Each structure stands twice: as structure tokens, then as C-alpha cells.
């Protein structure tokens, strides 16, 4: 079983990721942009595969998704998807080369048109109970 360890910016919190992510993508929802100031690069894991092994964290909810961050430096570590049993780990914390996004979601909220070769869903893909409607930049 693959084990990956990531840390917050100050090193006070350490998180252990067990196994491989279920999927990886960018979220452009207004919550993510309000909290992170940009699209959120997300590496999605089953909740039990993401555990804080060292340090103090604090969680808060802006509108829908509880987000956990380092109590000391404020680095966002992961977000919960209520009712789905998954945690979206901040992919900016992953070792180089471990974030391989498949698509972008909630692009209707994107601050500017996105220029890459990935699919850009206006809302969410069908596998997220969405419509699969793509943005026409």
C-alpha cells in the first residue's frame, strides 16, 4: 500500500495519505475561490485514507464544505465533501509529480477562462451527479 506524507507550510502538521487518490481535479466553485483565492487543486481520497498524524488543526465551514487547516500557520490541508465520505486534499502540498488532474469543475465561477487540454465542466461531471455540460470559452 502506498503511503504519502505531506506537511503544512510551517511543518507543524503532518498528514498521512494511504493508497492512491480516487481522482484529481481543480475546483473553481465560489467557496474554493473565496477560501483559497484561486481554484482549489484537489486530490480526492476516501476519508479514512487521510489522517492527521502530528500537529494541531482547526476546521471551519464557509458555506458547505468543512475545511481543515493548520492551527499555527493556517495552511489548508483538506476539505470534506459532506455525505460522500471523501476528503479533498490540497494538492499544492503533494510531492512534485503526484498531482495529475483529470478535469476542472464549477468553471462557471472561474475568474478567467482556463487554457489547458483538460475538460472544463460548467458545473460537475455526471459521475458527480452533474450534467457533463462543458464550458464554451
Structural features, described:
β1 (3-7) and β2 form a beta hairpin. Strands 6-7-8-9-4-3-10 form a 7-stranded mixed β-sheet. Strands 1-2-5 form a 3-stranded antiparallel β-sheet, with no helix packed on it. By secondary structure, the protein is mostly beta strands. It has 1 helix and 10 strands, in the order βββαβββββββ. It has one helix at 30-36; strands at 3-7, 14-18, 23-27, 40-46, 50-54, 57-61, 66-70, 76-81, 86-90, 103-105.
Which features does this protein show?
three-stranded antiparallel sheet, 5% helix, 137 residues, seven-stranded mixed sheet, 10 strands, 1 helix, mainly beta, single chain
Tertiary shape: globular
Strand order, largest beta sheet: 6-7-8-9-4-3-10
SSE sequence, one letter per element: EEEHEEEEEEE
* Termini separation: 41 Å
Any low-confidence stretches, pLDDT <50, length ≥5? none
Averaged pLDDT: 95
- How many beta-strand elements? 10
Q: Beta-strand percentage?
A: 35-45%
Structural class: mainly beta
Largest sheet: 7 strands, mixed
**What percent of the residues sit in helical stretches (DSSP H or I)?**
under 10%
Rg, alpha carbons: 15 Å
**What is the number of helices?**
1
Write the layout of secondary structure elements.
Blueprint: E1 3-7, E2 14-18, E3 23-27, H1 30-36, E4 40-46, E5 50-54, E6 57-61, E7 66-70, E8 76-81, E9 86-90, E10 103-105
Parallel strand pairs: 3-10
Antiparallel strand pairs: 1-2, 2-5, 3-4, 4-9, 6-7, 7-8, 8-9
Amino acid at each position: 500500500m502506498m503511503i504519502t506524507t505531506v506537511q503544512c507550510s510551517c511543518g507543524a502538521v503532518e498528514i498521512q495519505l494511504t493508497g492512491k487518490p480516487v481522482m484529481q481535479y481543480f475546483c473553481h466553485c465560489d467557496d474554493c475561490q473565496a477560501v483559497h483565492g484561486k481554484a482549489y487543486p484537489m486530490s480526492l481520497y476516501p476519508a479514512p485514507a487521510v489522517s492527521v498524524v502530528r500537529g494541531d488543526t482547526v476546521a471551519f465551514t464557509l458555506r458547505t464544505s468543512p475545511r481543515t487547516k493548520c492551527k499555527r500557520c493556517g495552511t489548508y490541508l483538506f476539505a470534506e465533501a459532506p455525505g460522500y465520505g471523501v476528503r479533498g486534499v490540497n494538492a499544492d502540498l503533494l510531492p512534485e509529480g503526484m498531482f495529475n488532474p483529470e478535469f476542472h469543475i464549477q468553471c462557471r465561477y472561474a475568474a478567467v477562462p482556463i487554457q489547458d487540454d483538460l475538460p472544463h465542466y460548467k458545473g460537475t461531471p455526471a459521475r458527480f451527479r452533474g450534467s457533463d455540460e462543458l464550458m464554451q470559452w
